[in-house]
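Recall from the previous lesson that a structure prediction takes nothing but the amino acid sequence as input. Here we apply that procedure to diguanylate cyclase from Arsukibacterium indicum. The sequence below is the only information supplied.
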Amino acid sequence: MWRQHRYKMLLSALLLLSGLLLAVNTGEAKAGNQFDWLDVLGEGTTLLVACGWLGLIISSRPTGRVTEWLYYGSLLLVYSYFLDLLDEFIRYPDHIRLMSWLESLPAPVGMLVLTYGLVGWHREQRAINRQLRGRELYLRDHQLIDPLTQLYGMEYLKAVLQREIELHQSQQSSLSMLVLDINNFSGFNRRCGMAAGDAYLGRLSELLTNQLRHSDVICRYAGDRFIALLPATALPQAQIMAQHLRQQLAQLTSHNDEPELTIQALAVQQSCAKTALQSADKALAQAKAATTLELQRT
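The prediction returns the following tokens.
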């Protein structure tokens, strides 16, 4: 995201540098005993907060009209607060009013520009929320829920995964998923019966629902396979969540006749749901093969 705004950052650096050079060439440095450190603290804190606003804008928003208003409004505030802070260290001649004007005028203009940008941001967010609610209602109206586990099924998973991929790409946020497979579930059904298999799936889905976050989307991907979508979650955090699930799911395999589980965490970097699911299947197969090879060695 920062690369999209590199020219804005260069302009900001040049603007602040020009303000510093203008202040140094116009005035003269004050003696140390003339510094008002309370004013320095207050004005310095204000400047840091405004710089923080700039950082948040360029790190979280793509280029666009609303971003321009937000950025340049904040930049005017930073410029005004920067010159205001320099005034505590540099004394200007009384007959030169330029620095006083540069300190005072950008701040109210920046406030107006920033406010206009915030209004645009509000409208933009409302449009996004309406779109997401519409898609969610469409999916819920079709009752795409697995009747046994009460989790969402394959069709819902594909639709939501595609939506999350698009949001991930537009907002430059992290997206991960957990893939869970019941090892040799068909053999368990043959040994213990379909009723035992259904009861096991019910306990498994309930445990997944209780252990994962409300923002995560848990779906029954296939008869013996589950996928949890983890929005705004980087791969290291997803791996920690996978390890936590392994510990919690161990209680389901407390009996020797119950199947083992394989859990794999991976980052979603594909551009469509189909390729992301294919990558998940491949990663899970590799994890199961590695586990089998390790068991054979031991």
